[in-house]
Specification:
This is Heat-inducible transcription repressor HrcA. With about 350 residues, this protein is α+β, with helices and mostly antiparallel strands. It is built from 14 helices and ten strands.
Length: about 350
């Protein structure tokens, strides 16, 4: 039992109702909530003085905070975590939201990434947050490999996959390479690739080089190992994080502090840092997960909230992730089912087109 859940269990019904009302009013408006506002929202008729006393107790517990001298309160990160874990009511997804996301599939495009891009744009439009879509790694078997010399210090490795997908990657070849050594390196690799993915190839190639060191020319061996070095980073670099709707995070009423927070978030998104960590966040549990403020290690400096879910292929293997990021006052009850639906949609889409 975490600290937030323990506090919730120890609260009486009145405190719980006042707390729920403060959080719901704050999530709806983004403004501090005063006792007078609460007395109009509460089901039970309680005086403003009693509400103030309860709010002071909740502030003492670390669940509410007073951002200004005024009597208005906002939930703390601990308070939001308690609300999400114990009081959040998840509604059904709105039919119009579903239609807007479904409409992105009305395309004959064979390019999965372009469809994921459109889904990301629709998701940001529906949620009014920034959407993040981590595209899946390409996992088909490799059919053919070729090295192409472009100039003295630049070469291209071309990979053709069994599903017709082609990827090109620039790299710096070892010095002294000749057309002959490049052909030998490609022939060596093509003899090993049948039915194997890039991930499978790494170990096989290293074993074969060790076993056949006398057979393969030294230059060709360097070329193969240079290609391996390129592939070591292949997964992270070709797995792409699509970010859409950053403008949704800016409003005319933002304070200087809020603008600085958003600038920090934009910098993180621009660098697309720790893409692997984004998938790791999604993999840590089943279904949709909510990270609030500093709990979200990926964008913790900006104090943003992240609602994220993995999506899976037909074999129930996690291949990517989708999420919505925004201020901590996200409408979690509405966004959770939207992210959940989008993740299921992405899983079906990628499985159908594989």
């Amino acid at each position: 039992m975490n600290e937030a859940t323990k506090l919730l269990d120890e609260m009486n019904d009145r405190s719980r109702e006042v707390f729920r009302s403060v959080v719901e009013a704050y999530l709806a408006s983004g403004d501090p909530v005063g006792s007078r506002t609460l007395t109009r929202r509460l089901n039970e008729k309680i005086s403003a003085a009693t509400v103030r006393n309860v709010m002071q107790d909740l502030e003492y517990l670390g669940l509410l905070d007073s951002p200004h001298v005024s009597a208005g309160r906002i939930p703390t990160q601990l308070g939001l975590r308690m609300f999400v874990d114990g009081l959040l009511e998840i509604g059904d997804m709105d039919a119009s939201d579903r239609q807007k996301i479904d409409a992105t599939l009305d395309s004959n495009s064979a390019n999965v990434e372009s469809v994921l891009d459109r889904i990301g744009s629709a998701l940001s439009g529906v949620t009014q947050g920034a959407s993040l879509v981590l595209t899946p790694k390409h996992e088909a078997a490799v059919k053919h490999i070729e090295f192409v010399s472009l100039n003295q210090d630049k070469a291209l490795v071309v990979l053709v996959f069994t599903d017709g997908h082609v990827e090109n990657r620039l790299f710096t070849p070892p010095p002294g390479q000749t057309p002959s050594s490049m052909r030998e390196a490609a022939n060596f690799l093509n003899a090993l690739i049948q039915g194997r993915t890039l991930g499978d190839l790494r170990q096989v190639i290293q074993t074969e080089i060790a076993a056949r060191r006398q057979e393969i020319d030294a230059l060709a061996q360097q070329m193969v190992e240079s290609g391996l070095a390129v592939w070591d980073g292949w997964g992270d670099e070709t797995t792409r994080l699509i970010v859409r709707g950053r403008a949704n995070l800016l409003t005319e009423d933002d304070s200087d502090h809020e603008l600085e927070r958003i600038r920090s978030l934009f910098d993180d998104l621009e660098r697309k840092r720790d893409i692997a960590e984004f998938l790791e966040l999604a993999e840590q549990g089943d279904g949709v997960r909510i990270f609030i403020g500093s709990e979200n290690k990926l964008f913790s400096l900006s104090g943003s909230s992240l609602v994220v879910s993995p999506y899976m292929n037909a074999d129930r293997k996690i291949i990517g992730a989708v999420g919505v990021i925004g201020p901590t006052r996200l409408n979690y009850g509405r966004i959770v089912p939207i992210v959940d639906y989008t993740a299921q949609l992405l899983g079906r889409l990628v499985s159908d087109r594989s």
